[in-house]
């Protein structure tokens, strides 16, 4: 195997790390320009109502107010959305959740803008609030969307899996388990709130600096609702202070709002949301109710599974039809079955709205199936980790959808690693023997997962990158995929440096800009390293080929005879040529030292009507063990330690990969123990971090993590994805450890504060 300099090295740091930790990085909230107006938003205080009156003209009478916009100021009332076009830049005719934007005011300063918002006259004719997804499906429930996309009231969409007939197998199974799991909404809780700065251009266009995840989709939406050609809308992504999937739809709205105000006033306009606004207006992880039925032989062999999912999308579809599809594809977990059927229904309610969040539907699906697998193992009197090893996917198996697996399957290895490192067998025995009346009880639990690579059936999955050699011999790299803290700029840099044989310092990665970076689809699904990394490889290979030809001509040999010594090219005569000399000679030969590379995932086929096919071209796998302490006096559950192993193919950046793992476990811990973005009759119950608690430093356990290296032939240097799936095993592992400690099975999250042993 060729020795690589950067890929797999533990001595690398993020290319933008120094600027961030020293405070040099400028975020949207740090950006100011001369003659800039400040914008504020009028948001709905009620979850469901007709807008019987909306008069924005009083705002214009407030000193310092320069402009105000409503839905009427946008093409087609600002209607947008994908895959279902059911949302609005500003509320049209009615409001559907607390926090929905209704009007936006631009003024000389924040105080004048807020006074303008307060002056707007708005009257609401309240409608029945639909907060329970099951109630939303009833025929007499108040209709939330303007037009039902399915023709069936508040039913937003459906998905299914049909892999054989599980019913006769379930009926005959000696061991049967059936249960329902309730998984809550979750707030993204990124440190930086949403923000955008719009600057009008002399030609009638507009440039917007915005901390969005998907600049090209944002550009297309903005151009559509502004009535401009896409060439007249430029989206530039400054550094982003965290996203986790949460900085798309709400920023599509924000972008269009400030862009319209900038065009009306002819002046720059900036809008940055407060924390309270952000938590009210942004989409959340979908709440799900998942009913599972599992059947196994008396020896523990799984035979069949049936799953029914009800998904709360809230007021709009957003990307829930896509994330619910992923949940459907993973609902029975990473196990072998003879037959599986899954039915999923996505439902509109007035509970805010839901969209992309790390794990993208699989977080909820894995939580339910992994808690259920533990219950089934307990019913059989089996060790839960051994039970998983008996049934987990291995080479040559079919997934729960009936799709064949490739050769890179590290799930059993992950389970073996966490078993050995956690001293699973001895700790299970020790904790099983604890006194029933012990004030502090301990438990250890396990969960495993599988996760499809890329978008799969969610859309066309491609990325494009460009690479250019500059006059000073540096290299400029662009990608349409964004870095919002996950480290993809570092990954792209090291891939390009490895391919070209140059130092990483020679390469500069531009921030995404729709004028300079080609479209690469949304930055979701942990696809940057695989899909984006491959696009960088393609672009770099083109430059490398030109430079090899230049070096061969310069040194009087064939390209195949060249060897590299650092950045130098060495021919048969062992006379080296520097990188600079080779680049200069290439220009003398007339070469254009710029290239574009595009890579698309292997084609897959999924029949959405029949629920059969191949949903993903490959999978990642992992396992986690949690050890917990539960106080019977206070009810507090403390995670003592986590062990985590992930099959991520070849690890490109080990330090960054472990950072992803630790961060994912932190979010999973929050999901298991404390986070629940609750709505009561459509009213959010916590809009700040005083009441909505996320893990703090002193909540975090010791973590021991590793990557089980396999090789994905399609991945850059054999890499798989990891940013999302490293989260999804944490919560169910903690839930299963809680059950081991207390004897109480909780079918959902967050776990209760008070635990009493049965």
Give the end-to-end Cα distance, rounded to a whole number of Å.
Answer: 57 Å
Please report the number of helical segments: 19
Helix share, percent: 25-40%
Please tell me the CATH architecture of the largest domain by its name.
2-Layer Sandwich
The largest sheet is: 7 strands, mixed
Largest sheet: spatial strand order? 3-7-1-14-11-12-13
Query: Number of DSSP strands?
Result: 32
What is the number of independent domains? 3
pLDDT below 50 for ≥5 consecutive residues: which ranges?
A: 754-758
CATH overall fold name of the largest domain = Aldehyde Oxidoreductase, domain 4
CATH superfamily of the largest domain: Aldehyde oxidase/xanthine dehydrogenase, molybdopterin binding domain
Strand content: 25-35%
* CATH C-level label of the largest domain: Alpha Beta
Give the overall silhouette.
globular
What's the rounded overall pLDDT mean? 94
What Rg, in angstroms, do the CA atoms define?
27 Å
Based on secondary structure, the structural category is alpha+beta
């Amino acid at each position: 195997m060729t020795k690589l300099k950067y890929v797999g090295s533990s001595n690398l740091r993020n290319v933008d790390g120094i600027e961030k930790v020293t405070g040099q990085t400028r975020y949207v909230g740090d950006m100011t320009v001369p003659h800039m107006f400040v914008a504020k938003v009028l948001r709905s205080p009620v979850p469901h109502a007709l807008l019987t009156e909306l008069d924005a003209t009083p705002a214009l009478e407030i000193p310092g107010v320069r402009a105000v916009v409503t839905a009427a100021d946008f093409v087609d009332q600002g209607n947008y959305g994908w895959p279902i076009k059911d949302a609005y830049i500003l509320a049209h005719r009615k409001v559907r959740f607390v926090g929905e934007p209704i009007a936006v005011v631009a003024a000389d300063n924040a105080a004048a803008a807020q006074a303008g918002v307060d002056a707007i006259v708005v009257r609401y004719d309240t409608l029945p609030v639909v907060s329970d997804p099951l109630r939303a499906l009833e025929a007499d429930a108040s209709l939330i969307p303007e037009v039902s996309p399915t023709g069936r009231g508040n039913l937003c969409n459906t998905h299914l899996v049909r892999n054989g007939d599980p019913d006769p197998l379930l009926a005959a199974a000696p061991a049967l388990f059936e249960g329902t799991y309730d998984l809550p909404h979750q707030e993204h809780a990124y440190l930086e709130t949403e923000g955008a700065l719009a600057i009008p251009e002399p030609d009638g266009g507009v440039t917007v600096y915005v901390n969005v995840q998907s600049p090209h989709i944002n550009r297309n939406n903005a151009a559509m609702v502004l009535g401009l050609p896409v060439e007249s809308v430029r989206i530039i992504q400054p550094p982003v202070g965290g996203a986790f999937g949460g900085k798309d739809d709400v920023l599509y709205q924000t972008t269009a709002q400030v862009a319209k105000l900038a065009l009306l006033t002819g002046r720059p306009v900036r809008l940055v949301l407060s924390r309270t606004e952000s938590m009210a207006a942004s989409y959340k992880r979908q709440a799900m109710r998942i009913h599972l039925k599992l059947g196994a032989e008396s020896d523990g062999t799984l035979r069949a599974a049936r799953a029914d999912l009800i998904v709360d999308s809230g007021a709009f579809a957003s990307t829930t039809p896509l994330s619910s599809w992923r949940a459907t594809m993973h609902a029975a977990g990473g196990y072998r079955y003879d037959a599986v059927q899954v039915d999923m229904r996505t439902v509109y309610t007035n509970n805010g709205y839901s969209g992309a969040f790390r794990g993208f539907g699989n977080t909820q699906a894995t939580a339910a199936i992994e808690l259920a697998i533990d219950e089934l193992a307990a019913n059989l009197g089996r060790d839960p980790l051994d039970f998983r090893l008996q049934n987990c996917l291995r080479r040559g198996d079919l997934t729960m959808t009936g799709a064949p697996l490739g050769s890179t399957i590290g799930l059993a290895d992950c389970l073996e690693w966490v078993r050995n490192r956690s001293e699973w067998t001895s700790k299970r025995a020790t904790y099983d023997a604890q006194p029933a009346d012990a004030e502090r009880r301990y438990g250890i639990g396990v969960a495993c997962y599988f996760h499809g690579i890329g978008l799969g059936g969610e859309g066309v999955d491609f990325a494009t990158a460009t690479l250019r050699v500059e006059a000073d011999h540096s290299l400029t790299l662009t990608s349409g995929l964004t870095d919002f803290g996950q480290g993809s700029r570092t990954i792209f840099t090291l891939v390009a440096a490895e391919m070209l044989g140059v130092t990483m310092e020679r390469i500069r990665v531009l921030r995404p800009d729709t004028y300079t970076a080609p479209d690469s689809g949304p930055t979701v699904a942990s696809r940057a390293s695989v899909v984006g990394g491959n696009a960088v490889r393609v672009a770099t290979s083109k430059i490398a080929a030109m430079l090899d030809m230049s070096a061969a001509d310069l040194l009087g040999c064939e390209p195949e005879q060249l060897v590299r010594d650092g950045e130098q090219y060495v021919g048969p005569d062992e006379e080296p040529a520097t990188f600079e000399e080779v680049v200069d000679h290439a220009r003398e030969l007339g070469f254009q030292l710029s290239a574009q590379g595009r890579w698309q995932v292997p084609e897959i086929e999924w029949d959405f009507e029949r629920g059969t096919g191949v949903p993903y071209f490959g999978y990642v796998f992992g396992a986690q063990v949690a050890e917990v302490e539960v106080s019977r006096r206070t009810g507090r559950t403390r995670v003592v330690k986590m062990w985590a192993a992930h099959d991520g193919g070849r690890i490109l950046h080990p330090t960054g990969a472990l950072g992803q793992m630790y961060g994912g476990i932190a979010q999973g811990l929050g999901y298991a123990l404390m986070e629940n973005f609750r709505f009561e009759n459509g009213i959010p119950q916590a809009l700040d971090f005083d009441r909505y608690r996320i893990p703090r430093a002193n909540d975090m356990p010791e973590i021991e993590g590793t990557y089980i290296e396999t090789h994905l032939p399609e991945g850059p240097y054999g890499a798989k994805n990891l940013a999302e799936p490293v989260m999804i095993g944490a919560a169910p592992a903690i839930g299963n450890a809680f059950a081991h400690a207390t004897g109480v099975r909780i079918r959902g999250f967050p776990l209760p504060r008070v635990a009493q042993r049965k």
